[in-house]
Amino acid sequence: MDSIVIEALVRALAVGTPLLLACLGAILNERAGVVNLGVEGLMAVGALAAFAVASRSPDASLWAAVGAAMLAGAALSGLHAVATVTLRANQFVSGLALALIGTGAAGLLGKKFEGLPLFNKVQDWTLGSFTISPFTVAALILAGLLAFWLTATRSGLTLRSVGENPAAADVLGVNVGLTRVLAVLGGGALAGLAGAFLALSYRSSWADNMTNGLGWIAVALVIFVGWRPLRAIAGALFFGFLYYLQFRLQGNSNVPTEVFSAMPFILVLVVLALAGLRGQAGDAPAALGRPYVRGER
Fold first, then answer.
1. Residue 8's CATH number
2. CB of 44 within 8 A of CB of 216?
3. Domain count, the chain
4. For residue 20, which of 10, 72, 139, 151 is within the disulfide window of CB 3.0 to 4.6 Å?
5. The domain containing residue 258 runs over which residues?
6. pTM here?
């Protein structure tokens, strides 16, 4: 019985790792007042960049692969920053476009990597009777650091003020535009890191649609956890367990496999509806999704 519980926890942590990393990136974006629905695309390009570097040769550096993934995520999210912060375009439309661009580009450019070996794979750490990915440990640490930074540091409070009342922050001398751009780039880097986990730790080969909708679940998870990094750990673990349950029951039941594949997305709709009934949307930053123009109320 203990072994079953440990196996479920380990598998839930593994699947929940990219959800947690991507969710933290989205929280960083939205705490500054910028909605980014393009997480799926950012994860895809991050996974491609990581795999492209790691599969180049047996001597390729895994640090370089991780850095490439974060850089790719930040670079693509830069398009979103320009569109939404500089040009003040609709954040939801820009995010959807980013998701399509990222997944499309990763699918197209990744064709030449299909079937190639992954020379360097991030090895899991052995802790007693189970193993854990370094990415998982990093995600848990990052969640704690982000929570501390947002609540206990001057720069973190500044970012939150931009998401709550950008006009007041502007009056106090805060560069609202720069703060939002940096938040978007940082969030994109974390989404790229989530993609690196998929390419370098969770799988050992490149496949189109590697993200498999995880980015969309991460976007919904932000609302579910009330924009709080520490709650994101529990939320990611919960959805990770649901994915584990999906694979565990698949093939051992007369229920069609499509039902199990749809389970995480159905649950997203359920938890978002419950969050709305509880009034959790009231936890959102006051200026979320609204472009800031100096002098306008």
1. 1.10.3470
2. no
3. 1
4. 139
5. 2-117+131-283
6. 0.91
